[in-house]
Amino acid sequence: MAQVIESVDVEVPVTTAYNQWTQFEDFPKFLDFVEAITQSDATHTHWRVKIGGAEREFDAEITEQHPDERIAWNSTGGDENQAGVVTFHKLSDMTSRVTVQLDWQPTGALEKLGALVGIDNHAIKKDMNNFKKLVEDKGEPSGAWRGDVSN
Fold it and tell me: Which of 62, 120, 122, 146 is in Cβ range 3.0-4.6 Å of 43 for a Cys bridge?
């Protein structure tokens, strides 16, 4: 499995960063590879992504979610085998650190080569900076889901 861990400090309170991250259908605004996400209930999403020019779809389940702290997920079916966690850390009243860890199984020669030479790390770092810009420019989240999920 390939793994990427990236962090970004954002100039918003931790609650603002967390609340914006819970708006999965907004992910195409900052994740370049995401075409669309549909959330069917509190813990299930359907993803349509474009990776290396190939369109793929998969379902994911939120396995753990604690407001202002963390969200963890696993893919449950489809074209991708991945799992991840995003954590939120209060650095000050107006500054937060958002850290993403993503583990996935690259398929095909292009994805395996990309993982080997760090293209994935670069892409996730860019996406984290896109999130920073989105949440700082807006100042307020576009919504929030503050439920707690434990498995």
Answer: 62
